[in-house]
Structures are given as structure tokens and as C-alpha cells.
Amino acid sequence: MGASEDGPEAGADPGAEFAAAADDLVDRLAGVRDDEGVTSTFAVDGAELVLEERGAGPRLFLLLHGIGMGRRVFADLASHLAPHGRVWMLDQPGYGEAPEPPRTPTMERMADFVAALLRDRGETDAVVIGHSMGTQVAVELAVRHPSLVGALVLAGPTVDPAARTAPRQLLRLARDLLVESPRVFLIGGREYLRAGPHLRRKMTAMLVHRPEVVYPRVTTPALVLRGADDYVAPREWCERVATLIPGAQLAELADHGHETLIRDARPAAGRILAFVSD
Fold first, then answer.
1. Cα angle: 157, vertex 223, 116; to 5 degrees
2. Which domain covers residue 231, as residue numbers?
3. What is the rounded distance in angstroms from the CA atom of residue 152 to the CA atom of residue 54?
4. Percent of all residues in the chain with a pLDDT value above 90, rounded to a whole number
5. Given strand 47-54, what is the order of strands in its sheet?
6. Which InterPro entries match (predicted)?
7. How far is CA 205 from CA 91, 103, 135, 237, 272, in A?
8. Residue 10 forms part of a structural domain
9. Is residue 178 helix, strand or coil?
10. I need a surface site. Which of 22, 48, 54, 226 has the fewest CB within 10 A?
11. Looking at residue 4, what is its pLDDT?
């Protein structure tokens, strides 16, 4: 006997439906809207990226999230950048809504995936904005594929060599979260769950990367951005990053921690726009 018109569809997965409903609730509570961008996927070498596009114009802002995160954490930042150009928000392979790749990519490999997307779309001179682990992907993109990057923004850069272990990174993140808002807990918690059971391997890929070796090879204009209360990316480390990158600028945002691009992103957007306009 078939289901009634008002009943569940044949083959419906109650668990998937519940997850989708919970996902929608988190977005609503966090102020994230689904109808603001155009979403597509891009496959490369067995991996897949999810791309959400907003805005219009010649300038392209490319946003790269940190470990355990996904493109939706940038919803507020994108809303401030979109009036000034096109904004690309990515789910890197194995994060957000992008499926887990067969192997956990290195930071270098992740940068190559992003480069393949940019080349496929005919893009050059992008303003590449990385947050946390995303700064490691961003700097590899700038060094390995310099024609694709016109400017580089490293927000809360990792990994500080003084804390290059998982326990130390997690301890710093825990201290930072003590001053963060419920909005960050909602979005960040959801994205960490999405990152799945391979988060330990992803953390290893982040920790074995040595960005301090790559920084001196950057040839594009660069801005190092940190929240004044950021425990994950301390001021001493960010000063070193800015020193290692030729001609880089360093800026701090008061009353912000590590999630400065997620919580109240207006100050960060203003500083980024001023930097690319110089």
C-alpha cells in the first residue's frame, strides 16, 4: 500500500531530513541566508570544491576558510565585500558541503585545486583572503600560481611554530572561543561536524606545513590581519609573518579574536577594501 500524499516520500531518509532541518535552523539563528548567492561545484583530480558566488564587477575576492570550517562562515564578510566586486566563497574538499576526497590534501595540493578552478574560469589577479588554515592555502596559491593572485590577505595566520602541535592549537582555540559570540559557536560547531571523522588527518596536514618557509617567496602585495584578542595567532607571530613577506602590512582589529572574519566582519572588510584600494 503506497504512502498518502501527505506522508513521507518512498525512500526518504529521516536522518538526512533532520540534518537538513537542523542545518537550516543554524543558518536562520546565525543570520545566514541561502538565497544570496549562486552555488556550483568544480571537480579536479578526484576532489570537489563547492563555490558560492555573490556580487558583480571586475574585481574578484576569493575567500578561503580555516580548518573545520566552510564557506558559510564568510556570509557576513561577503555581504560587505559584494558591493565592491565579485565574491567567491569556497568549501574546500572535505569541508562544508564538499565531499571527502579519497586522500586528505596537503596545503600545497589544496592550493593547486583552487588554482585549477581559477584557471578554468579564466580568472587572474584575484584578491585572495585566507583565514586561519586558509592563510596557508592562500600563501601556497600566491607562490605556486602567482599570476592568479593580485593581492593577499592573511587573517589570523597559522601555524605559529611556537605551538605546532594539536594540543597547543586546540588550547589556544579554546581560549579564543571564551570571548566569542554565540553566532560563532553556532556556525563553527556546525562546520566542525560537517568536517567529519577525518578532522585529525586534516589537522596533521595543517601542522606539517611550514608557512614561514613560504612567506619570503611571496611577490604580491600582502596584508596580515589579526584580531587584537586573537590567542591562536599571537601578535609576535603575526609581526614575524609581516616581516617575512616582502613589503607586507600588518593591521589589528580591536575587540576581535581569531574569528574576526566571522563575527562582525565590517571592520575587517573595511580594512581589506582600504588595502586593495591603495
1. 75
2. 36-277
3. 20
4. 58
5. 38-44, 47-54, 86-91, 60-64, 126-131, 149-155, 222-227, 249-253
6. AB_hydrolase_1, AB_hydrolase_fold, Carboxylesterase_BioH
7. 17, 11, 14, 20, 28
8. no
9. coil
10. 22
11. 37
Query: C-alpha cell of 223?
Result: 596584508
To which residue does cell 597559522 refer? 158
Q: What is the CATH number of the domain that holds 120?
A: 3.40.50.1820
Number of domains in the chain: 1
CA distance 168 to 159: 11
Angstrom CA distances, 167 to 102, 127, 131, 141, 173, stand at 26, 33, 20, 28, 10
CB of 220 closer than 8 Å to CB of 142? yes
Please name the amino acid found at residue 152: L
Strand partners, 153: 129, 223
d(CA 96, CA 90) in angstroms, rounded, equals: 9
Cell numbers given for 243: 616581516
* Residue range 25-49, pLDDT digits in tens: 445 544 555 556 789 999 999 999 9
Cα(209)–Cα(203) distance, integer angstroms: 10
In a domain, 6, yes or no: no
Residues 6+ apart with CB under 8 A from 134: 63, 64, 65, 66, 69
